[in-house]
Amino acid sequence: MIMSKGRKVYQVCINIIMILVTLCMILPLLLLFMSSITDESTLIVNGYSFFPAKFSLGAYAYIMQNASTIFRAYGITIVVTVVGTTLSLLLASLTAFPLSLRALPGRRVLSFIVFFTMLFSGGLVPSYIMWTTVFNIRNTIFAYIFPNFLLGAFNIILLRTFFTTSIPVDIYEAAEIDGATYMRIYWQIVLPLGKPILVTVGLFTGLTYWNDWTNGLYYINKSDMLSIQALLNRMIQDIQALLANSTANSGALMQIPQVSIRMAIAFVAIMPILIVYPFLQKYFASGIMLGAVKG
Q1: CB 148 within 8 A of CB 214
Q2: Using an 8 Å Cβ cutoff, are 165 and 287 in contact?
Q3: In 147-227, where does DSSP find H-type helix?
């Protein structure tokens, strides 16, 4: 197919824009990594650079001094992310599917109740009291999973909209004629056809669980129960406390990579997500496109 001159110019402009957008996403990550392997004194004197004058792995060496603790924190975070995302998708889809059925009695009222939770909440203090005194989840794995992230109204609305606009009602009716129950329709029709939006919502939810450090700050005070984000945040706080202590040994302070370690900690925290994302990108892009066209 021969492209017209205007079409070629348009294609070139689009390619240039996409290259610039890609660079805007990749370059900060590259700068983050290069800063994490830059010698501390060079980083302080010359600032951040893609081509540092002197390299050093001191920041990663400092982190690896607590390798066993970090690996345990990674394990906790992986379990929390997988279990939390799975439960969140299950509960959100089980809520969204009935709301997508026009024959559901009280559908508008129930939808309004779900939407209402996006506007108002009980607040942090009542939530903390409820989770710690009634459910007693302090210093347990459930403290990372249940509060704040398990079931969100926004995810329910996204799934409901997708189910309503992208799955024909005729499929439901045909399945009912064949004797299928609503639960069977949910498992064998809704979930397979809703895979793009489920992966998209699941990726958002997984990122939320992975990046969460607030639940660990509020509900966890045992060092062996810290997630990777909570642990790395505590490491930064410990370094800041050491620097603020006027009686601290100056020789010990000189050995701590005060600036580059922040970059190393950030890079260590996001690396697993960078590895997993390419495997989900196909479904993620499909879900976004369908949501944009159908929504």
Answers
A1: yes
A2: no
A3: 153-166, 169-177, 182-185, 191-193, 195-211, 214-219
Name residue 63's amino acid.
I
CB 47 within 8 A of CB 246: no
Q: What is the pLDDT of residue 291?
A: 44
Cα 20 to the center of its chain, rounded Å: 25
Return all residues near 258 (Cβ < 8 A) that are at least 6 apart. 40, 239, 243
pTM metric for this prediction = 0.76
pLDDT at 294 > cutoff 50: no
CA distances from 26 to 35, 122, 211, 284 (A): 14, 39, 19, 19
Determine the Cα–Cα distance for residues 196 and 203; give it in Å rounded to an integer: 11
**Interatomic CA distance for residues 178 and 214, integer angstroms:** 49
